[in-house]
Amino acid sequence: MKDRKRIFSGIKPTGDLTLGSYIGAIKNWVDLQNDFMCLYCIVDMHSITIRNDPEVLHRRIREQLAQYIAAGLDYKKNIVYIQSHVHQHAELSWILGCYSMMGELNRMTQFKDMQKKHPQNLNAGIYTYPVLMAADILLFDTDVVPVGEDQKQHVELARNIAQRFNGIYGNIFTMPEPFIPKVGARVRSLTDPTSKMSKSDDDTQGSIFIMDSPDVIVKKFKRAKTDSDSLIKFDPENKPGVSNLMDIYSAAAGKSYDEIESEFVGKGYGDFKTRVAEAVIEKLRPIREKSLELLKDEETLVSIYRDGAERASEMAEKTLVKVTDAIGFLRK
Ligand code: AQP
To answer: Ligand 1 mean position to 238 CA, how many Å?
Structure first.
């Protein structure tokens, strides 16, 4: 029996965490942990669909863990862990792959994007990534999956797989629901507001990283793309750059679009950008400082991820046993 509804969510360590990762994911995770039992994961297995420098990947996984904790994820009340430490993810993923249809996977828009982005390394992992994500979610009887709008299709797939499996074997999996936050649903690149702010974007000027120093943050906002008039107005279609900065300011300072528009009546983009930069610096400062502190404390970091892996594995094993019993495997 569950005492609280469950949440599973993760970020892959394919780059240093950005303001997009924070506003679009981690900030909401912090709010959700009061009402749900949460599993917050560093999905390192998902990150190897692209080639990483092993040393860099190793550093990012540690830093991501430190940033999760520094941002306020409560690893005692909830579970914070590293995906590859819980072997049941890979095992359930193989099983669910046999209940996923090629046609379904062909339709995934993220796969189509990756086909264009990495044509020289179109490996099978990129194709079956949504199946591993379904396993991540279904392993823990997850009720709610907080995701950005671009990941909604993957949660739909997890539901389809669960429905198919339950249709054959009875009520094995809980049906997960996607949860898409309204504010910060998509933080866009500062240099190209038509695309998302991404960890792995080649143009690092478009992304604010959680570990960026205040000076760097100010410089990046100064160069952020706006438009030729000087009106601060929320209009994503005609003013994508300004609207993106308003979204960021709204999330960092807790202000509505109306409040922001009134604040900058008669002022230009220079003032506006400075104010957005200041709000972001203040929001990120404690996370950056606490992360740096934690990264010096190896013993604490190791004890957090070992404890998380142990508790996640115990929960995952229960689901895996139900699944393997249902399909007829022999217990060892
Ligand atoms: N810019 C963003 N705006 C809103 N939400 C975002 N997320 C990431 N960037 C933004 C949300 O963070 C969660 C974890 O994402 P992920 O790292 O697993 O995958 P991603 O969405 O592919 O993130 P990136 O930064 O774009 O990584 P790369 O560059 O490696 O592809 C998701 O819920 C995501 O929506």
So the answer is: 24
Distance 223 CA to ligand 1 centre (A): 22
Closest by CA position to 269, among listed 287, 286, 306, 244: 244
Burial of 2 (0-12, 13-18, 19+ CB in 10 A): exposed
Task: Judge if the beta carbon of residue 187 lies within 6 A of ligand 1.
Answer: yes
Q: Per residue in 192-201, pLDDT tens?
A: 999 999 999 9
Q: Residue 186: CB within 6 Å of ligand 1? A: yes
Ligand 1, atom 8: closest residue by C-alpha: 21
Beta strands in the chain (DSSP E): 6-11, 37-42, 79-82, 144-146, 177-179
What's the confidence (pLDDT) of residue 183? 57
pTM > 0.70: yes
- The per-residue pLDDT for 185 is 63
- Which one, of 131, 128, 139, lies nearest residue 323 by Cα? 139
Weakly modelled stretches of the chain, pLDDT under 50: none
Q: Is 13 in the pocket of ligand 1 (CB under 6 A)?
A: no
Ligand 1 close to Cβ of residue 24 (< 6 A): yes
CATH superfamily of 212-292: Tyrosyl-Transfer RNA Synthetase (1.10.240.10)
R_g of the chain computed on alpha carbons? 21
For residue 3, the model assigns a pLDDT of 79
6-180+297-327 maps to CATH 3.50.50.60: no
User: What are the tens digits of pLDDT across the range 26-60?
Assistant: 998 999 998 999 999 999 999 999 899 999 999 99
Assess whether the C-beta atom of 14 lies below 6 angstroms from ligand 1.
yes
